[in-house]
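Forum: Protein Structure Q&A
Topic: Joint prediction for protein chains with partners

I've read a bunch of threads here and the consensus seems to be that you should model interacting components together rather than docking separate models afterwards. I'd like to see that in practice. Below is the full input, 557 residues plus whatever partners are listed. Could one of the regulars post the assembled result?
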Amino acid sequence: MDETVRSANFIHNIIDEDLRQGKYAEGIHTRFPPEPNGYLHVGHAKSVCLNFGTALKYAGLCNLRFDDTNPVKEDTEYVDSIEEDVKWLGFSWDKRKFYASDYFEQLYAYAEKLIEKGLAYVDDLSAEEIRTYRGTLYEAGKESPYRNRSKEENIDLFRRMRAGEFADGEKVLRAKIDMASPNLVMRDPVIYRIAHTSHHRTGEAWCIYPMYDFAHPLSDAIERITHSLCTLEFEAHRPFYDWLLDVLEFDANTRPKQIEFARLELANTITSKRKLRQLVEDKLVAGWDDPRMPTISGMRRRGYTPYAVRDFCERIGVAKANSLVDPAILEHCVREDLNEHAPRVMAVLRPLKIVLTNYPENRTEELTAENHPTGGGHRYVPFSRELYIEQEDFAEEPPKKFFRLKPGGEVRLKHAYIIKCEEVIKDDDGNIVELRCTYDPDSKSGGASANRKVKGTLHWVAAKTAIRAEVRLYDSLIVADEEGNVPEDFLEALNPESLEVLKDVRVEPSLERTAEGSRYQFLRQGYFVVDSDTTPEQLVFNRIVGLKDSFAKVKKG
Ligand code: ATP
Ligand code: MG
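Posted by a regular:
Agreed with the consensus. Here's the joint model:
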């Protein structure tokens, strides 16, 4: 693993201090605990990098644990996608893949233990009544009339809950703590509920399921996790986490410690699983891996590299305060990685035909083109009488400082000759359909006028040998407000121009046998990846990111 995961943060300072005090002598052990109810997104990537990265830094272990305690929304499709995404990011859990559902029997035994200690009771209040009895921040809660049932009655009722004698919602098991606690979480939280629902792993075995707040600390303790890293919204839940481990007598020196950190919120970006699921289910995107989605699978298909995503997570750091991160930082990381590694090729996105009137009809030259400015060898690109350049690289009435092609003007074609525009050909409607140009035969590399200076250099492809391709250009999926916040009613803010499909792109023939997932810089156009929709007949590219770097601009000031 590279260095991107190893720098210090406040969590690592806590771990260092624990180790100094001789705690956790068996080694540091973290876990990444997704609920398999959706695909992972960029926010989860931060948690994956933090948990697996921390284990790597301390030569410890990190478990992958599926928190599958809510059978209604969970599915094996999500389990599979999560595994693929964590692997893609470059992390490994070896044999340590667990499920909270593996512990259902143990968790049940812990619940009975609580009852035996007089610390849990079966409550008949409805969900609505439990809510009203809970009180508010300013007002103590009210004790349930069922709170003081005997241990025997509680055990009997809890066993009958498990046996399926009651309907959903008829009873719950609650921890017996303090209905007057200033912390609402501590006001007798529900720890088991009835749900006559089949579970994607345990099938029909259970009709009662543990609540997250109960299952999570105990799963951590069962797995001997040392540092349980979670997002800030769980801060108020920490007293219950500690209470549970206390009353169940887990050793204070080895049991897990919960530490909260700020969620990653990207400006202009949806990082709510519920909303992302809605986009998929309502078919507003092509799927979880639509290249516009901030999911890990979306970023992968978009062509982002795992290195860039890890680099990004490292750069934004881990802090205790929430903040909105500029997606330009993520794009900057992607661009930096691709700038270093992506081979350069030429592709014309919106072709305009050029005929070189003084170039022999049947000649094709193979010109040498470097694959990368810092090395990486050469390839040959064919050059012939008919070529394509970008439509936007020609202007009949050019604005000032237009250093591209204009009537009577000259430009250099990259890796090739200087050409001069002699004549503009239009169709009956006045649209420009072709340019007649001449070339300077001495102007290519090694020629007598090779060093002749002209202002502009354009990319191009030879018409005869070019391959036709489709290119998909992406823009932000939503139009956020000025601060970059996604509006609550995000469906109203969908960007109708988030996808543009170019059907008549021409790419140089060296790309003929390129493979899905290969990434390139198309000169002057940005970075592109071969999409999975590619077939032997049709090449399809996604634009990963353009060449302009708004983050670098901000940095320079
Ligand atoms: P929900 O629980 O509402 O389904 P979630 O986004 O919290 O959504 P989980 O599967 O519970 O999804 O998340 C797995 C882990 O990833 C948790 O430890 C969670 O704290 C962390 N996580 C989720 N979203 C972010 C985020 N935006 N930034 C950092 N970590 C996150
Ligand atoms: Mg969660």
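Residues 33-35, 37, 43-44, 46-47, 230-231, 263-264, 271, 273 surround adenosine-5'-triphosphate (ligand 1) (CB under 6 Å).
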